[in-house]
Structure formats: structure tokens, C-alpha cells
């Protein structure tokens, strides 16, 4: 593989520093026992790390920025350690933001108990919808104001994390969530947000992206803001064991989409490339295992790393027209984001092969996925095969999409901020043609 030689050189030193709980910080060494107190200090003052701004969308500037939360936990036991860190950081009134599914499996109660045992008063907002809405954000914000919460813990996948970001951003910046659609529109850091991940796909627990559905216009607003990154992300494979096969498949293909779009993005750089390629490799190796056996600890943990790497890639290189189009489908029809991405991914990448650089890079994707031929076409066919292997239907018509809506969907996709870094900027007719091909 392209980056295996590099990994083989650094793996021995990494292995010496990683224990049963893995912490990742942008500023400090990995050795857990020797720097526990320093990690806590970094987490407690974590709001300071994102005071700067260099937009990856500013193509005229030669400056690149790399955004990642300053404190991230991985591995079994990470949820307990997160509760310890919340206590040490002095957060006393915590709002948990989650969805009914997390309530049903008891994970919310477990987190609540851990926090209350450590002295926090805990309130719960459990109304998050699969595609979180403006109403969800405002309902959660009411609880923040009513109870005077000093922090938020989101538990779930991208829906819970995105909703929590919207709540946290408005809690300190005011206004309406629509005011922050676009790139870096806020002026102040959001309320401290700790994101506990239960899926391996969205990477929303560590990104500066939040997608909120505007109900009246039936569109998804893309909020890309340095202030929306959590101060702590948590990826504990034990919280993912209960994820059903269909959701495992959808979120896993979402992770692959993040990596592929970031790799062919016009804002890609060597750091995001390394993250994207490793994500592609891990998804290719472990997604099907996680779908077949949700209790496969190795597969769950590897997919957690994969989706985080994909998040590191697109958090800094941004995305493309797969997401620009998928957001419209999710907002208009209220269907799962990961499924939309999975179906659109091969069709958008086929369109992107008009660009020689993108075509060459898709050949690299084929290599990471283990294809015999290292070509763009091989990568595209492999993605289709992966969809079939994990039970995702190949066409949009199976989701109830209507051809008559392609015009409006395409117009809205053209306005989506995620499309700015696609390697080829399509015309309106070309976007409609991609929808038609995926139909």
C-alpha cells in the first residue's frame, strides 16, 4: 500500500505509547500514564485551540489549516475515562443530547449514571431526529437556558453530534442557526461539547461540520465552523456493539465517502491524503466484518479508527458533490445520509474522472481497496461491489426518490458549501444527469 512503508516505520514507537485506552492530542505526547494531568489541563482549556481561522475554501491563499480536537479518546473504557475528564474539568450542569434509540438501549442512562456519580447534575434532551432539524436545535437550546447548563455531552452518531453543535453554537453566539450556514460565520467559541460516538461513519464527533435540516425549505444547511469542534471526542467500541447491520453498513460507507471525497478534493494536502488513504484501506478490510458480526471487537475498533481518519481528512480538505447532492436528498425526503452517499459515490466519481488528477487519485483508492487494477474504473466498480456486499441497494429509485424533483434537488446542491472543493464543477444539467444515472 502507498502508506504502509511509512506506517511500518512509526508503528513500533506508536505501539510503545498506546495502552488499552488511547488518547490523541495535537499538542502533547501519547503516553497516557506520564501525561494524564497535562492531558486534563489541555482538555479543560480546550476552547483556546480553535481561536484561529484559515478557511480551506480560500483557494487564493497558499496557507493550509489542519483542524482536529485537542483531546480524543479511543478503545474500551473510553466512556468511563471521558466521565473522569468531565469531572476534572469542572463541568457541573451537563445537558445530554441524544435520540430515542440511544435511550432505548440504555446507553444514555449509563452515561448519566457515570456523570452523576462524579458530581454532575444531568439533564437530557432526547428528541434528536435522524436528520436533525432547526426545531431540534431550538428545543435543546431552551433546556440550556432553563437549567443554566455549562456543557453538553452528545451521545449517538452524526445526528446527535450535529444537533448538539447547533445548540452549543447558539448558546454562546445567539441568533438563528441559519445565520451560521456556510464557512466560519460565528464569532465566539461554542459551549463546551463532549461527543461520545456510537457509530463508525460520520466522524461528527471530531469535525467542524454540522448539517441541520431547515424544515420549511426542506434543505440541509451545511455549517462549517472552527467553533463547532468538540473539546473531547470519544470512540469506545463498546458503545458500538448494538449498532444494527443496516446502520453499520450505511455509516461505514459514509466514512468511505468522506475519505474518497477528501482525497480527490481540490483542498487536499499530504496530511489529509495520508488520513484518507488509511481510512479507505481500513473500511475495505473491516466494514463487512462489522456488518456480519456486530460483536467483532477488532472490526468495531478498526472501523472507529477508520471513520476518525476519514473525519481528519474531510475536516481539512472538505468534501465534494456526493455530499452536496446527498444533503438535498436527506433534507427533501428525510432518508439516511449514509445510504444516499453510498449510492451517489460511484456516480459522482465517474463524473470526476473528467479531471486527470482526480482520475489518477481514484487509482490510488483502487490500490487501497485491494483491486487488481489500479484505475479509477476499478475503484468505482469496487465501491459498487462493497455496497452490494453490505446490503445497500444500488439505485435511488429504491428510496422513493422522484425524477420530477431532480431540478430542485440539483439547484439546491449547487448552493451547498461542500461542493466548492469538488475536482470538477458541474453545470446544473450535469448535476441532474448524475441524479439520473444514480436513479
Automatic annotation (TrEMBL):
* UniProt keywords, alphabetically: NAD, Oxidoreductase
Question: Which SUPFAM superfamilies does this entry report, sorted A to Z?
Answer: Dehydroquinate synthase-like (SSF56796)
Q: Which GO terms describe its molecular function?
A: alcohol dehydrogenase (NAD+) activity; metal ion binding
- The Enzyme Commission number assigned here is 1.1.1.1
Q: What PROSITE patterns does its record include?
A: ADH_IRON_1, ADH_IRON_2
Keyword Cell membrane on this protein? Answer: no
Q: Where does the Alcohol dehydrogenase iron-type/glycerol dehydrogenase GldA domain start and stop, copy by copy?
A: 69-237
GO process annotations (BP): fermentation
Record-annotated membrane-spanning stretches = none
Report the residue ranges that make up the Fe-containing alcohol dehydrogenase-like C-terminal domain in this protein: 248-439
**Which InterPro entries does its entry note?**
ADH_Fe/GldA (IPR001670), ADH_Fe_C (IPR056798), ADH_Fe_CS (IPR018211), Alcohol_dehydrogenase_Fe (IPR039697)
Q: Which domain of life is it from?
A: Eukaryota
- Family note: Belongs to the iron-containing alcohol dehydrogenase family.
Sorted alphabetically, which PANTHER family does this protein's record hold? Answer: ALCOHOL DEHYDROGENASE, ALCOHOL DEHYDROGENASE 4
Give the protein name, as stated in the record: Alcohol dehydrogenase 4
Amino acid at each position: 500500500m502507498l502508506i504502509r512503508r511509512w506506517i511500518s516505520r512509526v508503528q513500533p514507537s506508536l505501539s510503545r505509547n498506546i495502552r488499552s485506552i488511547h488518547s490523541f492530542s495535537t499538542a502533547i505526547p501519547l503516553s497516557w500514564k506520564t501525561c494524564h494531568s497535562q492531558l486534563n489541563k489541555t482538555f479543560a482549556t480546550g476552547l483556546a485551540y480553535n481561536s484561529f481561522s484559515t478557511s480551506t475554501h480560500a483557494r487564493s491563499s497558499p496557507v493550509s489549516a489542519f483542524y482536529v480536537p485537542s483531546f480524543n479518546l479511543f478503545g474500551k473504557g473510553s466512556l468511563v475515562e471521558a466521565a473522569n475528564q468531565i469531572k476534572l474539568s469542572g463541568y457541573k450542569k451537563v445537558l445530554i443530547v441524544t435520540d430515542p434509540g440511544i435511550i432505548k438501549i440504555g446507553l444514555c442512562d449509563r452515561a448519566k449514571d457515570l456523570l452523576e456519580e462524579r458530581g454532575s447534575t444531568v439533564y437530557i434532551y432526547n428528541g434528536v431526529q435522524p436528520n436533525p432539524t432547526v426545531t431540534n436545535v431550538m428545543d435543546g437550546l431552551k433546556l440550556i437556558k432553563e437549567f443554566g447548563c455549562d456543557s453538553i455531552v452528545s451521545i449517538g452518531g452524526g445526528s446527535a453530534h450535529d444537533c448538539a453543535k447547533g445548540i452549543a453554537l447558539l448558546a454562546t453566539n445567539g441568533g438563528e442557526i441559519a445565520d451560521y450556514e456556510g464557512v466560519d460565520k460565528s464569532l465566539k467559541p461554542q459551549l463546551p461539547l463532549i461527543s461520545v460516538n456510537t457509530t463508525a461513519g460520520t466522524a461528527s464527533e471530531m469535525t467542524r461540520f454540522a448539517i441541520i435540516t431547515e424544515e420549511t425549505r426542506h434543505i440541509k444547511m451545511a455549517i462549517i465552523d472552527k467553533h463547532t469542534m468538540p473539546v473531547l471526542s470519544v470512540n469506545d467500541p463498546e458503545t458500538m456493539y448494538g449498532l444494527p447491520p443496516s446502520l453499520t453498513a450505511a455509516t461505514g460507507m459514509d466514512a468511505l465517502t468522506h475519505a474518497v471525497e477528501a482525497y480527490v478534493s481540490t483542498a487536499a494536502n499530504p496530511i489529509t491524503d495520508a488520513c484518507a488513504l488509511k481510512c479507505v484501506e481500513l473500511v475495505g478490510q473491516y466494514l463487512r466484518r462489522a456488518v456480519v458480526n456486530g460483536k467483532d471487537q477488532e472490526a468495531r475498533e478498526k472501523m472507529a479508527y477508520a471513520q476518525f481518519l476519514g473525519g481528519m481528512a474531510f475536516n481539512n480538505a472538505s468534501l465534494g458533490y456526493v455530499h452536496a447532492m446527498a444533503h438535498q436528498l436527506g433534507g427533501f425526503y428525510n432518508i439516511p445520509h449514509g445510504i444516499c452517499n453510498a449510492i451517489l459515490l460511484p456516480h459522482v466519481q465517474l463524473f470526476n474522472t473528467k479531471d486527470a488528477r482526480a482520475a489518477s487519485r481514484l487509482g490510488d483508492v483502487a490500490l487501497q481497496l485491494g483491486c487488481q487494477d489500479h484505475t479509477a474504473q476499478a475503484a468505482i466498480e469496487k465501491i459498487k461491489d462493497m455496497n452490494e456486499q453490505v446490503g445497500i441497494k444500488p439505485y435511488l429509485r429504491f428510496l422513493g426518490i422522484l425524477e420530477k424533483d431532480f431540478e430542485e434537488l440539483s439547484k439546491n446542491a449547487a448552493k451547498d458549501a461542500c461542493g466548492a472543493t469538488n475536482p470538477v464543477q458541474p453545470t446544473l444539467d450535469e448535476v441532474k444527469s448524475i441524479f439520473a444515472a444514480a436513479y
